[in-house]
Specification:
Shape of chain A: globular
CATH superfamily of the largest domain in chain A: Nucleotide-binding domain of ferredoxin-NADP reductase (FNR) module
CATH superfamily of the largest domain in chain B: FAD/NAD(P)-binding domain
Strand content of chain B: 15-25%
Number of helices of chain B: 19
Number of domains of chain A: 2
Helix content of chain A: 25-40%
Distance between the termini of chain A: 25 Å
Bound molecules: flavin-adenine dinucleotide, iron/sulfur cluster, FE2/S2 (inorganic) cluster
CATH class of the largest domain in chain B: Alpha Beta
CATH architecture of the largest domain in chain B: 3-Layer(bba) Sandwich
Order of helices and strands of chain A: EEHEEEEHEEEHEHEEHEHEEEHEHH
Largest interface: A-B, 40 and 42 residues
Number of strands of chain B: 18
CATH topology of the largest domain in chain B: FAD/NAD(P)-binding domain
Oligomer: heterodimer
CATH topology of the largest domain in chain A: Rossmann fold
Helix content of chain B: 25-40%
Structural class of chain B: alpha/beta
Largest sheet of chain A: 7 strands, mixed
Number of strands of chain A: 17
Number of domains of chain B: 3
Chain lengths: ~280, ~475
């Protein structure tokens, strides 16, 4: 049982939660994640570790309330407990030094980008962050990101803030092959795929942080498998970060839709009890 | 002890008692336990079949050396509690072992009566004794847990290997902590073996007993991630046992294996057993079981997966590349699978899986095999027959083709010497690192519950020796 110390709504359906987790706080590195189960009947879901606080022995995660489990998690308030929380899981992000690094995030992926951008900056890289949100209301962690990256640019789908368009269009408009040595992308699958496709000939290494369906998160079930460069890899232990130019995003997108009808069943069943707190 | 003259004469020729089971029609829709266990009358009759050998081969053959001869004698004399006591001296988990141990490979294989007739049903007798005591003590109030005071020992993983090591160590007053990666305790007993073979209350009770003896359990804790081996030593643990099992599923490495509806046995069973997908939507985790399921493999995992699929109403086939004689599952489970209507397709192996435009598996291509000369496992090697390929429609595929050692701890502990991923040990489970011991599936690869327990017991003895030496 892990105590929730703080909850804050960053956007209409995106909650930031700070949770007591002394051991994970001491050991986590940028790019790693945890698996939680909000209640005793819940699924196990992975969430990226976004931040930590040594004094309060806590870690921070950001949850977008979409399915039943994420809605249930986001509905918990400070003072409540999370039934199960285990980590840190996955390999940390590969952080080199002295490079020009492009960090790209979309949606809730922007939060997950934060520790990676910070780590790149801390290792003496020049960091430019391109972040995407549906509308101005969905822009999250702007202040933190501004500190983490040397340069931060926003794109919103409706143009309500910053560049009018998506991250890919923003990227196309502002960068050329050769401008960056390295890139990191995290967000919805179509966005990661589009960025990977667009930068394939740029001579730039691009890492994507993948978010397939997981259960145990310890390499025990193979449910999180993805194809990278023609090889089957387990995202929870071999990743979550992989060479974006080698990832089979189409397969991953299909696999992530495997339980769509089940998700609908369970949301319908609980629709009356849940509901988004806003 | 009863007088020699009073003793009832053994009757080895009597037919072996048949274990009562739930009717297959009921099983088709139920997660309830299939094997119901002997009645007291049956247990007595079966116990009488034991001829009380002067040199009981069964005791030698049992990896824990349970005094089988003595416990059966107690049963004959009507002392079921005394029988359980005799078992418990060596095996504190008779409810689990009486249900899942592969007795036909160990004690029952050695039983002298079996040389001429059917062997004594030692496993079912063991289970009877456990259940008999359990039924009567269920309402007993739990006593407050004891507080051991000796040196601290950490056990990694909560499977059978660690469970018995914990029992042996806590009895010697060590302060034992079991660290488990998952949110539930028991290892394969919790995530792999279905309820209908091992009801969870039996497992919980035998684990609760350890808790009462003062063993501390920590779930959601991955050694190598949440803390390292070195970190545990720094926290004051003086010895560490690694019983992390063989949880890494092998993949079939055939085209189409990432299609939707294709599972490893581990994922399929974890979803259903650990996450209780059979209760969906009461439990949140779903599983996809379509109208036709094919399970690949011939071991316990294959039987378990197939029997679950059947319970979801799926037309289920076990596809095995060798013949019936080469199946490696418990005999009882093979028979139960057959009774439940699981179809067995021998001498065939999948070559590829084909999907529809949305990525769902719809068809499997199979190649026929014939048996050739023995391979490295000593069993006849399956040899593909060229041109014999055929296709069948399928909605769910479960690959139950084996598992390797769980790699998480090894990756985080590169100084630990391994062979093909298995932790290398010598006598008593000593690894290449001082005061670090290992046993069970992480050393053997996929093995059995009872051999994991044997390893756990030997490691506990080695830990006790090492720590008592240190104290002097
Ligand atoms: C589906 C299935 C059915 C089976 N049926 C039978 C049967 O009927 N009879 C029989 O005799 N055998 C059976 N077996 C084999 C038997 O279950 C195993 O041989 C036995 O459980 C091995 O015990 P163990 O203690 O070594 O490890 P396991 O039971 O595998 O337990 C290991 C535990 O360690 C945990 N762990 C792993 N890494 C870490 C880490 N780094 N930190 C903390 N915890 C960790 C795992 O989560 C797991 O809970 C079956 C196996 C399977 C998969
Ligand atoms: S070998 Fe068989 S007959 Fe002999 S003591 Fe053991 S159970 Fe009894
Ligand atoms: S989530 Fe089970 S292996 Fe990755």
């Amino acid at each position: 049982m892990n105590l929730i110390l703080r909850k804050e709504w960053l956007a209409p359906d995106i909650a930031l939660m700070e949770v007591e987790a002394p051991r994970i706080e001491k050991r986590w590195l940028a790019g790693q994640f945890i698996i939680i189960r909000p209640g005793a009947h819940s699924e196990r879901i992975p969430l990226t570790i976004v931040d930590s606080n040594a004094e309060r022995q806590s870690i921070t995660m950001v949850v977008q309330a979409i399915g039943k489990t994420t809605r249930e998690t986001a509905a918990l308030d400070a003072g409540a407990h999370i039934a199960d929380l285990v980590g840190p899981l996955g390999e940390p992000a590969r952080i080199g030094s002295g490079a020009r690094v492009l960090c790209m995030g979309g949606g809730v992926g922007v939060a997950e980008l934060l520790p990676v951008a910070r780590a790149f900056r801390a290792h003496g890289n020049h960091v430019v962050a391109l972040c995407g949100a549906r509308t101005d209301a969905y822009r999250i962690l702007d202040g933190e990101l501004r500190k983490a990256a040397g340069d931060l640019k926003w794109a919103t789908d409706d143009g309500s803030y910053g560049f009018h368009g998506n991250v890919l269009q923003l990227l196309r408009g502002m960068a050329q092959p050769g401008d960056f040595d390295e890139g990191h992308v995290i967000g919805p699958i179509p966005m990661m795929k589009a960025v990977a496709d667009a930068t394939r000939d740029w001579g730039m290494k691009l890492h994507a942080s993948l978010n397939p369906v997981m259960i145990d998160g310890t390499g025990m079930c193979g449910g999180c498998r993805v194809t990278v460069g023609g090889e089957v890899r387990f995202a929870c232990v071999d990743g979550p970060e992989f060479d974006a130019h080698l990832v089979d995003f189409d397969e991953m997108a299909r696999r992530n839709r495997a339980y769509r009808e089940h998700e609908k069943t369970i949301l319908d069943k609980h629709a009356c009890r849940l509901g988004l707190s806003q | 002890m009863a007088q020699q003259g009073n003793r009832v004469k053994p009757n080895p020729k009597a037919p072996r008692q048949v274990l009562p089971v739930l009717a297959p029609e009921i099983r088709a829709h139920s997660a309830d336990e299939v094997a119901l266990g002997f009645t007291a009358e049956q247990a007595k009759l079966e116990a009488l079949r034991c001829i009380q050998c002067a040199k009981p081969a069964c005791v030698d053959a049992c990896p824990l050396h349970i005094d089988i001869k003595r416990f059966i004698l107690s049963m004959v004399e009507g002392g079921f509690d005394a029988a359980l006591e005799a078992i418990s001296e060596q095996n504190p988990f008779p409810g689990v072992c009486g249900r899942v141990c592969q007795h036909e490979l160990f004690c029952e294989d050695a039983c002298l009566v079996g040389k001429k007739w059917d062997p004594v049903a030692i496993g079912s007798l063991e289970r009877f004794c456990a259940d008999h005591a359990r039924l009567r003590t269920e309402e007993a109030p739990p006593s407050p847990p004891r507080k051991p005071t000796g040196p601290k020992v950490a056990l990694v993983g909560s499977g059978p290997a660690s469970m018995i090591a914990a029992y042996d160590l806590v009895r010697k007053n060590y302060r034992v902590t079991i660290f488990e990666a998952l949110h539930k305790l028991g290892g394969v007993l919790a995530y792999g073996i279905p309820n209908f073979r091992l009801p969870r209350n039996i497992l919980h009770d035998e684990i609760a007993r350890l808790q009462n003896m003062g063993v501390e359990f920590v779930t959601d804790f991955i050694v190598g991630r949440t803390a390292t081996i070195d970190g545990l030593f720094e926290e004051g643990y003086q010895a560490i046992f690694i019983g992390t099992g063989a949880g890494l599923p092998y993949m079939m490495k055939i085209p189409g294996e990432n299609l939707i509806g294709v599972y490893t046995a581990n994922e399929f069973l974890t979803r259903i057993n650990l996450m209780e997908a059979y209760k969906f939507p009461e439990a949140d985790t779903p599983v996809r079981v379509g109208a036709r399921t094919v399970v690949i493999g011939g071991g316990n995992s294959a039987m378990d997966a197939a029997r679950w699929a059947k319970r979801f109403g799926s037309e289920t086939t076990i596809l095995f590349r060798r013949g019936r004689a080469e199946l490696r599952a418990r005999l009882e489970e093979i028979e139960h699978a057959e009774e439940e209507g699981v179809h067995f397709e021998f001498l065939g192996a999948p070559v590829r899986l084909l999907g529809d435009e949305n990525g769902f598996v719809v068809e499997m291509e199979i190649i026929r095999m014939e048996l050739g000369p023995p391979d490295s496992s000593g069993r006849p090697a399956p040899v593909p027959i060229p041109g014999s390929e055929y296709r069948i429609p399928v909605d769910t595929v479960v690959a139950a083709i084996g598992q390797g050692p769980n790699p998480t701890l090894q990756r985080a502990t590169p100084q630990l010497v391994t062979r093909n991923g298995k932790i290398a040990v010598n006598g008593g489970g000593a690894t290449s690192l001082p005061m670090v011991f290992a046993g069970g599936d992480v050393v053997r690869g996929g093995s059995t519950v009872i051999l994991a327990m044997k390893d756990g017991r030997e490691a506990a003895a080695a830990i006790d020796r090492a720590l008592s030496q240190e104290q002097q």
